[in-house]
Amino acid sequence: MAVVKTEFSIKDLENLSDVKAHTIRIWEKRYNLLEPDRTDTNIRRYDMDNLKKLLNITLLYKAGHKISKLAEMDPIQIQTLITEETESNSTNYALESLRAAMLAFNVEKFDSVLENLLNERDFRDIYLNILVPLLRNAGMLWQTGTVDPSHEHFISQRIKHLLILKTAEVKKNIRDNELAEFVLYLPSGEGHEIGLLYANYELVRRGFKTLYLGANIPTESLEPVLKQKRDAIFVSYFTVCPKLEDMETYIQNFLHSVGAKNEFWILGNRPYKNKGGIKSLKRFEEITSFVGYLDKIS
After folding, report:
1. What GO terms are given for molecular function (predicted)?
2. What are phi and psi of 212, to 5 degrees?
């Protein structure tokens, strides 16, 4: 089992703060900004308090404050200044706050930041401009070994929970009408569900009926659905599965199992050229293009 980090290298700090290691060393030497421990071989090791301080300082530094002035401030002054900055640049502040909550596995702080955002901003804006960048950043940090997969799972589960709640809130919009009905699923081996949950939210918000099947659904398991949902539009989100080289085979298997009569909408940034000119197939590489299309047809 992986051990969650409680101490960090200067490279970790660089990845987390987007401040070059060389700059961190200068800040440390010139302004006594951080107080790392050192190993027997004189390698810097930073604890969680050092990391939190650097993230706060970086947020204010990027907002235009001089590092020399920030280094002279005590923690209370720093927090006061951050609160003031919140009003002028809430997106950056929210991102840094949510990332700090992720590192500390702080459920209360994570939910509190989201609650404040929801009171001030549209949910679509929050998802596209804050939550999606947060997830991408967490994935990058995991790939570089800066954070543990448990950090990414922590925020993923909080965001999934939020998406389910927001979808339940807008379900009152669903009405008996002649709008198409949608079946949403992820293919076998695909477990990245957040994008599909958001697609479901956008559909439900517009009054469409949806059947949400979730992750890891074999293509043949869609056949029984057709007996009850003959005219359904199928929606899937490809992140890691099927593999790029298997995309054509998967599309053909879908057409064989479900047929070309039902439209098949694929979301996700997976390049695929519809060489056969399949009319029932629609591709949305960006979630914004999917949302824009829904705006046109609803």
Report:
1. cobalamin binding; DNA binding; DNA-binding transcription factor activity; metal ion binding
2. -100, 110
d(CA 21, CA 17): 10
* H or E stretch at 227: helix 223-228
pLDDT tens, position by position, 111-142: 988 998 898 889 999 999 999 999 888 877 77
Whether residue 146 has pLDDT greater than 80: no
- The CATH code of the domain that includes 211 is 3.40.50.280
DSSP letter (8 states) at residue 104: T
Q: Concatenated DSSP letters for 163-197?
A: HHHHHHHHGGG--SSSS-EEEEEEETT----HHHH
Residues 6+ apart with CB under 8 A from 103: 16, 48, 51, 147, 151
Cβ atoms 222, 234 nearer than 8 A: yes
Tokens of 33: 């900004």
How do 209-217 and 264-267 pair as beta strands? unpaired
CA distances from 93 to 3, 30, 55, 81 (A): 28, 26, 10, 11
- The range of the structural domain enclosing residue 6 comes to 1-88
Whether residues 243 and 228 share a domain: the answer is: yes
Q: Is 8 helix (H, G, I), strand (E, B) or coil?
A: strand
- E strand or H helix at 237, and its extent? strand 233-237
